[in-house]
């Protein structure tokens, strides 16, 4: 498989180069030259296939010659070694739970696949590889856990001090080994600015090989197709008809992966792009015009994105034809009040505890089903509610219990290096002049 840049200035590359580079030299996103079709009978067999087999079947055409078959099968097995249950919540609505991975977020799937691919590629690198990421919460944890213990790769994560939840902070700071957490005395924008500045620092970039583990990386984007296959197979078995799938969206990588699986042959009646107040895509679906906006802060903060980076991939997938996009995709923007009220109401009526991101998708799906009552609805539950305890506990009036798998991690000591939001400090740290890790309680 070859990948071209959506800016169409750079040369095409293979999966290895696309994964290591993240973004094309012309600044564009990589996109596969052809969309492979699932093998005949694949959808019918899905309920009987092993998860690793499904992942291998979906991903092998995209990886091509870049990774030998035995190695790729191993990577696939490690990527999807946790369940993706479809749980009925209310009449005509089921949750596809994507939070049973090590950091309780759907990003585990992309991060695990990408880290193992990079680990394989780094075996033939002479310089050590450092993964440098800024996180507002979920991304960093999934990336850290994905790369934990991968030989030849160091991970440095910048997060805003005091602005991530306790579970998220433990997932960033308590792992140890090859993962270092830099606690920045600033906000998420500061963290992102520092990382961008580091990538522009030519002198620094020559010392080691830096990579961004960014959400636009093809190795994070493509494996997300796998759980759509599971979800749809379970929905078909339960209702006999292709479901309508609502996806809580920020950068739109997740939704775009679902669309990709659909174009490859997965039966889905329609997708619903569920957004919070950051609604540029729902606005595009209504008007046909796309206008990026500054991001605004909401309760579903992993979706606070004003210019979704994967939107270009959605356009490309539909040949830039607005009518074809509208045929497959509806959009809806959900306010913070509606999000909190949905968590409260669904908990009262069904006992199910939504996280704020799942609640946005739930509400958007209800809105769609009100006009299309015969449809079978599935929404993606992208994170465990314990990662957003303030919002969820305020809405339900109950404490969210920490799942057993997390108890040990919650007891580990936190280790972070506290830095001012100034580039000189980050640079000093990265060039090894600031070795001492400070331990905070
Ligand atoms: C990242 C994230 C999203 C948004 O996913 P995109 O692929 O960026 O659209 C939704 N929910 C949660 C919990 C997330 O962490």
Keywords for this structure?
five-stranded parallel sheet, 441 residues, six-stranded mixed sheet, single chain, 20 helices, Rossmann fold, disordered C terminus, globular, binds pyridoxal-5'-phosphate, alpha/beta
How would you briefly describe this protein structure?
The chain has 441 residues and is of the alpha/beta class. The protein has a domain at 83-105 and 221-396: Rossmann fold (3-Layer(aba) Sandwich). Helices cover 44% and strands 14% of the residues.
Q: What do you see in this structure?
A:
The chain has 441 residues and is of the alpha/beta class. The protein has a domain at 83-105 and 221-396: Rossmann fold, CATH 3.40.50.1100. It has 20 helices and 13 strands. The protein has helices spanning 15-21, 42-45, 51-63, 69-79, 107-122, 138-147, 166-173, 188-200, 202-207, 218-221, 225-239, 253-263, 280-287, 311-317, 322-328, 336-350, 356-371, 389-396, 404-411, 423-430, and strands spanning 3-5, 30-32, 86-90, 93-97, 129-134, 153-160, 179-184, 209-211, 244-248, 270-275, 329-333, 377-381, 417-419. Strands 3-4-12-9-10-11 form a six-stranded mixed sheet, with helices on both faces. Strand 5 (129-134), helix 6 and strand 6 (153-160) form a beta-alpha-beta unit. It is globular and about 60 Å long. It starts with a strand and ends in an 11-residue tail after the last helix. Pyridoxal-5'-phosphate binds next to helix 12. Pyridoxal-5'-phosphate is lined by residues 105, 107, 138, 215, 248-255, 302-303, 357, 382-383. Residues 97-368 form the Tryptophan synthase beta chain-like PALP domain. This is Threonine synthase.
């Amino acid at each position: 498989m070859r990948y071209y840049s959506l800016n169409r200035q750079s040369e095409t590359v293979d999966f290895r180069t696309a994964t290591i580079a993240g973004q094309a030299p012309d600044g564009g996103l990589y996109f596969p030259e052809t969309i492979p079709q699932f093998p005949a009978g694949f959808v019918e067999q899905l309920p009987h296939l092993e998860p690793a087999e499904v992942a291998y079947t979906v991903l092998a055409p995209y990886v091509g010659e870049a990774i030998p078959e035995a190695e790729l099968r191993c990577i696939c097995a490690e990527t999807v070694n946790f369940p993706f249950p479809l749980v009925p919540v209310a009449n005509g609505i089921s949750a596809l739970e994507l939070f049973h991975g090590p950091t309780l977020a759907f990003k585990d799937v992309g991060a695990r696949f990408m880290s193992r691919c990079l680990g394989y590629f780094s075996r033939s690198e002479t310089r050590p590889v450092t993964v440098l990421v800024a996180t507002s919460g979920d991304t960093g944890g999934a990336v850290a856990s994905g790369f934990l213990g991968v030989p030849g790769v160091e991970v440095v994560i910048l997060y805003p001090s005091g602005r991530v939840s306790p579970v998220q902070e433990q997932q960033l700071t308590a792992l140890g080994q090859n993962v270092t957490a830099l606690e920045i005395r600033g906000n998420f924008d500061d963290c992102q600015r520092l990382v961008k500045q580091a990538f522009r620092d030519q002198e620094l970039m020559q010392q080691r090989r830096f990579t961004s583990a960014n959400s636009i990386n093809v190795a994070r984007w493509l494996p997300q197709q796998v759980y759509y296959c599971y979800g749809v197979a379970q929905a078909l078995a339960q209702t006999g008809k292709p479901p309508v799938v609502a996806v809580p969206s920020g950068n739109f990588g997740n939704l775009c992966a679902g669309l990709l699986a659909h174009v490859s042959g997965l039966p889905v009646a329609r997708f619903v792009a569920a957004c919070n107040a950051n609604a540029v895509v729902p606005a595009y679906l209504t008007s046909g015009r796309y206008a990026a906006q500054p991001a605004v802060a909401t309760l579903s903060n992993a979706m606070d994105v004003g210019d979704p980076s994967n939107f270009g991939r959605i356009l490309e997938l539909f040949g830039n034809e607005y009518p074809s996009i509208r045929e497959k995709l509806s959009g809806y923007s959900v306010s913070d009040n509606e999000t909190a009220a949905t968590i409260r109401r669904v908990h009262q009526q069904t006992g199910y505890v939504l996280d704020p991101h799942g609640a946005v998708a739930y509400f958007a799906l209800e809105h769609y089903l009100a006009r299309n009552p015969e449809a079978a609805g599935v929404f993606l539950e992208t994170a465990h509610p314990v990662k957003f305890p303030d919002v969820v506990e305020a809405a339900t009036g109950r404490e969210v219990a920490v799942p057993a798998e997390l108890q040990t991690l919650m007891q580990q000591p936190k280790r972070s290096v506290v830095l001012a939001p100034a580039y000189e400090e980050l640079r000093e740290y990265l060039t090894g002049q600031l070795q001492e890790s400070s331990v905070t309680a």
